[in-house]
Every structure is written in structure tokens, then in C-alpha cells.
Design goal:
Layout: H1 2-44, H2 46-59, H3 64-84, H4 86-89, H5 94-107, H6 112-149, H7 153-166, H8 171-178
Helix pairs in contact: 1-2, 1-3, 2-3, 5-6, 6-7, 7-8
């Protein structure tokens, strides 16, 4: 019986190898076409690219090479969107920036680029708040000094209290309240 199956076993193995080569060739062609198409979309319309990435993942669930490809293009799409919005990101329009970042997270919630961007913006926002606080105290102290020279003590007390509500350690405001 074994000798009678031998030709069929050999035929089956050779057919299986041929089929495997054909599948690998088709997979390679598919990937090359997708890369070309996704690259074109990246240059032309990033929003359309993102939609295509979701479709590719849904239609090829479990295909590791497709998932790797879509992840690579998600990173590229996010980087391109960030580059395109650099003017906004360099501004102090923090609400608009937050909305932009929220839209980016819809592309990839776990993106390292998005996390770095959030940290950069948060750091700059804190710096601006500190700068604004210092400017408020400086202008308030200048105004306080003027009020004291004009002997407008009631207003000076109010200004000193405002300054102290912002900076409890402001010595000039403390001195004014003692006077």
C-alpha cells in the first residue's frame, strides 16, 4: 500500500510547494500595490489614507504583514498631519491644539509621536502660565507703587491682596499691607 501511495504523495508535496510559491508571489504583489497606493494617498489626501488603512485592516484581519504596513502608514500620516499644522502647534491656541490632538488620537491612540506632542504642548502651556503670572505680578507691583505714591490706600490694599492671591510670597505687597 505504501508503494502505491508514493506517486500521489510526491505529487501532493510538489503541488503544495507550487501553491505556496504562488501564494507568496500574490502576497508580495498585493503588498507592493498597496504600498504604492498608500504612498500616493499620503502625498495627496491623508484623511482618505486613514480611511483606507482602517479598511485594509478590517478586510485583512489577522494578516500580520498588512497590520505592519498599516501601522507604518499610520505613523507617516500622523507625522505629516503634525508637520502640516506646525503653525497651529507653535501658537497659544490651546483649545484648537487639543482638538487637533484628539483627532490625531483617532488615527492611533497609542502613538508615540502624539504623546511627545502632548508633552511638548503641555510644557509650553505651563511656561506661558508662569510667564503670564510673573507679568501680572510685575504690572500689579508697578500699579501698587503708583497708588501708594498717589496716597490711594484703599485701592492699593485691593491691588496688594490681588497680588498676594497670585503670589503669597510677594514682599512688596506684604509691606504695603503692613503700612
Amino acid at each position: 500500500p505504501r508503494s502505491t501511495l508514493f506517486p500521489y504523495t510526491t505529487l501532493f508535496r510538489s503541488s503544495r510547494k507550487l501553491y505556496k510559491k504562488q501564494i507568496e508571489k500574490l502576497q508580495k504583489e498585493f503588498e507592493e500595490k498597496q504600498i504604492k497606493r498608500l504612498s500616493e494617498l499620503l502625498d495627496e489626501d491623508v484623511d482618505k489614507l486613514v480611511g483606507e488603512l482602517f479598511l485594509l485592516e478590517r478586510n485583512n484581519a489577522g494578516n500580520k504583514s498588512v497590520l505592519e504596513m498599516t501601522q507604518k502608514y499610520r505613523v507617516k500620516a500622523i507625522k505629516k498631519k503634525i508637520r502640516d499644522k506646525e503653525d497651529l502647534l507653535d501658537s497659544n491656541k490651546y483649545d484648537a491644539i487639543k482638538n487637533f490632538i484628539d483627532r490625531l488620537k483617532k488615527i492611533d491612540e497609542s502613538s508615540r509621536d502624539i504623546k511627545e506632542l502632548e508633552e511638548r504642548i503641555q510644557g509650553r502651556k505651563i511656561e506661558n502660565q508662569i510667564e503670564e503670572k510673573n507679568e501680572f505680578i510685575y504690572k500689579g507691583s508697578d500699579y501698587l507703587s503708583t497708588l501708594m505714591k498717589l496716597k490711594k490706600y484703599d485701592k492699593a490694599i485691593k491691588v496688594a491682596n490681588e497680588i498676594l492671591s497670585t503670589d503669597k510670597n510677594d514682599n512688596e505687597a506684604k509691606k504695603t499691607l503692613k503700612k
